[in-house]
């Protein structure tokens, strides 16, 4: 009995060591849903980066019955995450005020990314569109995005670096009106949909295994649509899906075609039938 109490006590000590009080700089809690911070909603200046990474990597939601509160700070690289807790996924968004390169090392996973222009007034009132002022994006450690990347009204962006990204649902990139940009996603293995627009000369997905919708690319650059389409059409897994690519070098549309399924001939049936008879005969002989 004393030994079991010791184990329970040791377990509670480990849980206490793994959990730290929630840092309110990371955004509103259930008790204060009207509060906002840069880490919760968007970047205004480069000084927001460290706070955002800290919050995105260490904020966890836990069972309030077990722990008495919902949000805690934990470092999964140093301690196992306790039962009843899961990471709160963050969304990376920049405001119109953010200017210059966006470099976020140490960030490994997100719910989504939204980098786009905004309206002076509203879209419904035909307000003036103010494009984003981000000039480049570098997320060297990002591996997983639960939902989507949407980069829109982004003529100022000259480079996008996501070397470790493996999974994402939707990839929408609109660099129309901007300088020539070369894009490569060396680790991306699966994605639901891809739509990319801009002056693109190089576009590469060397590790891509599966897409679930037609890949759409519209380039005002010299992208080799023929080679690009042929390299990816077999990653599309559904009927009527494929690759649609347009550039200065021409337009190409390829549709995924399922390979023919092997047919079983009558001869194969005869062989199988004969094999079954032989098996039954051997079983009978051995039983004698």
SS elements, strand count: 22
Portion in strands: 25-35%
Average residue-wise pLDDT: 81
How far is the first residue's CA from the last residue's CA? 62 Å
Overall structural class, as computed from helix and strand content, comes to alpha/beta
Indicate the low-confidence ranges by residue numbers: 1-17, 30-34
For the report, how would you describe the main beta sheet? 9 strands, mixed
Question: What general form does the structure show?
Answer: globular
What is the string of helix and strand elements?
HEHEHEEEEEEEEEEEEEEEEEEHEEH
What is the helix tally? 5
The helicity comes to 10-25%
Structure description:
With 288 residues, the chain is an alpha/beta fold. It folds into 2 domains: 1-88, no CATH class; 91-288, no CATH class. It has 5 helices and 22 strands. The strands form 6 sheets. Strands 5, 8, 13, 15, 17, 19, 20, 21 and 22 form a 9-stranded mixed sheet that branches. The chain has a 4-stranded antiparallel sheet with strand order 1-3-2-4. The chain has a 3-stranded parallel sheet with strand order 6-11-14, with no helix packed on it. 25% of the residues are buried.
